[in-house]
Every structure is written in structure tokens, then in C-alpha cells.
Amino acid sequence: MNISQQCADVRPRARGTERSLARRAELIAIGRKLFADTSYDALSMDDIARQAHVAKGLIYYYFQSKRGYYLAIIQDSVADLVITAAGGTELPQVDRVHRTIDGYLRYAEHHQAAYRTIVSGGVGFDAEVHAVRDGVRESIVVTIAEGAYGRSDIGALARMGLLAWVCSVEGATLDWIGRPELPRDTMRDLLVKSLGGTLRAIEELDPAYPAPAAARRD
């Protein structure tokens, strides 16, 4: 499954009038901020309605339940992140890796509430939510693999190496948007160099996956 298909899977299909879609999008934007700062279990529907300044019934109307509301927020945020990070498919392989990392950081920087919701905003309480987060990790792994190796069907060791790098990027990015002491370009270059180290380690353990020439210079 390619990136565009994955995005189609996580973004809910639009239904209803233009006005109702706009209202739904507004509620999702509010929910991103709420769940970015407070865990899922700590927020009741009454809390959500009060902080969103809407009737509780309106949230039930659009999302049926608190879980449905949270899933919609996660799915919408993930789709935005994957689309942003996976762009630049027309670029050369190495340039695409740089574009992916820069797009990922740019999204986190400009959509901090959504990013925190994806990575840590109550994730783990629900197997389906956990699967959505795992899905975005796999999407980034696929994008990096296509940029580094020219293909996405990689072996277990290469996949695990890239997944470990992606998980480390999540933690570093959360800290970076909370304490933006580094410019985005510097943060990107740091992550690119750490990826180079990961790619060289993968090659050392499995020569079937040689690191790109650029990774050898990092």
C-alpha cells in the first residue's frame, strides 16, 4: 500500500453539507488542543463541551462518543502529518529523505497540538488508537526506505533499524517543540546525520542494504 492509500485510510470520508463539515473540522481543531494538554481518561465529555464552549449533544451528533471524537482527531492529524512528510516524490532519493525530515519537523513546529496528540496525547488507552500511531510510524519508515534504498519492501533488520530511528525522532521532536532552542534547519541536519549513522549500522549488520553515498559522508 502506498502513502496516498494510507492517507485515504486514516482520513475520514467527508459527508454532509459544507456547513456541517466546517463545524466538524472546528470541533476537531478544538479537540487537538484539548487532548494535546490532557490525557484521554482525564477529560470527560462535560469537560470537553465546557472547554469547547459547545453543547455536549453537538459532539455526540458528529462523533457519537468520546472515543469516536478522539479517533477522528487522531485520524485527521495523522493524515495531515503523513501527507506533509511524504511529499517530494519527484526528488532524487537522498533529497527526498531530507524533504521528508524537514516536512515532518515543519508539521510538528506549526501544528504542535496535533503533533502532541498523535505522539502522546492519551495514546495507549485504546488498541485502535495505538494502531493509528503505529501506522504513521510505518508510513515514515516506508518513505525513508524508498528514499534510502529506492524501495519499501525491506527486510526485518533494516525495518527495525529505521523504526528505532523514527521512535527516537518522536521523542526528540517533542522536546524540540517544547524547548525550541535549535532552528529547524539545525534540527533537521542533526536528524539527517543520526539517520546516516542508522543506515551505516544497518549496512554493517546486513550488507544487502548498503547505505547511500550521502550517508557515508554524514
Notable traits:
mainly alpha, Arc Repressor Mutant, subunit A, disordered N terminus, elongated, Tetracycline Repressor, domain 2, 11 helices, 218 residues, single chain
Would you give an account of this structure?
This protein is mostly helical and 218 residues long. It has two domains: 15-73, Arc Repressor Mutant, subunit A (Orthogonal Bundle), CATH 1.10.10.60; 74-212, Orthogonal Bundle (Tetracycline Repressor, domain 2). The protein has eleven helices and no strands. The protein is elongated and about 60 Å long. The model is unreliable at 1-15 (pLDDT under 50).
One letter per element, helices H and strands E, the order comes to HHHHHHHHHHH
| Estimated radius of gyration | 19 Å
CATH fold-level label of the largest domain:
Tetracycline Repressor, domain 2
Could you report the average pLDDT, rounded to the nearest whole number? 82
| Uncertain regions spanning at least 5 consecutive residues | 1-15
The domain count comes to: 2
Main sheet summary: none
Distance between the termini: 31 Å
Overall spatial form: elongated
What is the annotated CATH architecture of the largest domain?
Orthogonal Bundle
The CATH class name of the largest domain reads Mainly Alpha
Q: Give me the number of helical elements.
A: 11
**Strand fraction:** under 5%
Number of strands: 0
User: Level of helix content?
Assistant: over 70%
The assigned structural class equals: mainly alpha
Assign the CATH superfamily of the largest domain. Tetracycline Repressor, domain 2
